[in-house]
Specification:
Length: 403
């Protein structure tokens, strides 16, 4: 069993292959015709967009904690005294990796303002012989958190929703095939999105209304999600013909047309996925699209979009490389995202910040090899990030920016 999953990329690519059909070659990073180390191609910048760039690194990122033999699977923050992290731990460090067939444990941590404290999962998720791992985390407080655990015999066959009530765990509920993103508009309103196992289908949704779950098909595979309220929820991902972003207005889901992304034909979007969405207000929503070298005219790059309440507009992004994490707010109108450029030993990991159209970036290559999760800490200008440790990819690393 492969318990060391690069989940976001794997699900995005698999879903794109389902939606677009098999037969297209996919190469990651500098492969597939991308320039090698030392040659950085032009970034995917919106035509006619002026972009301010600062070459100097932006300080402040540091390692907050290392979790040995753990793969991070989700990260959420509600404030300076409330954050949740989940992942999975392989039982035998000697065989941790693609050949690991030992029992594993769901790993859950809660930040209380002083330390990351262990939250023991339900018994069935400790030393399990199943292939399992956290796929998404969402909460509204320290007493209301949801961990979505993917489980199966040799792969993820279904997802269980684990609800922490503050006094313990409610009975787990099986909600669908592979759920990879979640958003909560309120304590009793939770959405989850993912990919069905059946070939030819695009996406799935599951919705909790405070009493029970409903689920069904969805037009996107839900690799990104965000919620401002029970009547303002966003979900993005791969569609049957390319990429799409859907909006829930409290009554129905509706597609929001995207501007031209310059990705060519639908076959060339196989290497593209919606990496993240963050909603600052009803007329201030950001989405980030990552692209990998595929075929034709689709080079690796990052596309940034902004919603003004009526339409999406492409925003200039000055750096080459593909987004690898969700987009996060910075607490004062700007945004953060993580990206990488290159492959193998030549790969560089960056965390980028936009403030009023002025981009800066800092290399975190010495700290983390893949940054999969990035979240703002509300009420502050600080952030948490999680991914694989740079000098030991079998460990999860938690980074913090700011005090």
């Amino acid at each position: 069993m492969d318990k060391r999953r690069t989940r976001r990329v794997a699900y995005a690519v698999a879903s794109a292959l389902i939606a677009g059909g098999a037969g297209a070659a996919l190469a990651v990073g500098g492969a597939g015709g991308a320039p090698g180390a030392g040659t950085e191609p032009s970034a995917l910048t919106a035509p006619g967009t002026a972009v301010a760039v600062t070459a100097a690194s932006e300080p402040g990122w540091r390692i907050a904690q290392v979790l040995p033999n753990v793969t991070a699977g989700g990260l959420w923050a509600g404030g300076a005294w409330d954050a949740w992290l989940a992942g999975d731990e392989c039982a035998d460090p000697a065989t941790c990796g693609a050949t690991d067939e030992s029992a594993g444990t769901l790993v859950i941590r809660h930040w209380d303002g002083a330390s990351w404290r262990v939250v023991t999962p339900p018994k069935a998720y400790v030393d399990s012989d199943l292939d399992q791992g956290a796929e998404a985390v969402v909460a509204t407080s320290a007493a209301n958190a949801w961990i979505f655990a993917g489980r199966g015999l040799q792969q993820v066959d279904y997802t269980d929703a684990l609800h922490w009530t503050g006094n313990g765990w409610a009975k787990p509920v099986r909600i669908g095939d592979t759920m990879v993103q979640a958003a909560a508009g309120a304590a009793g309103q939770v959405w989850a999105f993912g990919t069905p196992l059946a070939y030819g289908q695009v996406g799935l949704f599951a919705h909790y209304n405070g009493k029970s779950w409903t689920h069904g098909s969805f037009p996107v595979n839900g690799t990104a999600a965000a919620a401002l309220s029970v009547s303002d929820v966003w979900a993005g991902g791969t569609t049957a013909t390319g990429l799409g972003i859907e909006h829930w207005n409290g009554r129905a889901w509706r597609a929001t047309p995207l501007p031209s992304l310059g990705l060519g034909s639908p076959a060339e979007t196989i290497g593209a996925f919606v990496a993240g969405i963050t909603a600052l207000s009803a007329d201030d929503v950001w989405a980030v699209i990552g692209t990998y070298a595929s075929t034709g005219t689709n080079p690796p790059g990052t596309i940034v979009l902004h919603w003004d309440g009526g339409k999406w507009t492409r925003v200039g992004f000055p750096y080459a490389g593909s987004a690898s994490s969700p987009v996060a707010a910075d607490g004062h109108g700007g945004i953060w995202l993580a990206m990488f450029y290159g492959s193998g030993a030549q790969a560089t990991e960056w965390i980028c910040h936009d403030s009023a159209g002025h981009w800066t970036r800092t290399s975190v290559t010495s700290l983390v090899s893949d940054t999969f999760y990035l979240t703002w800490i509300p009420g502050t200008r600080s952030l948490w990030a999680a991914g694989d440790q740079a000098d030991n990819g079998l460990n999860a690393v938690l980074l913090k920016y700011g005090p």
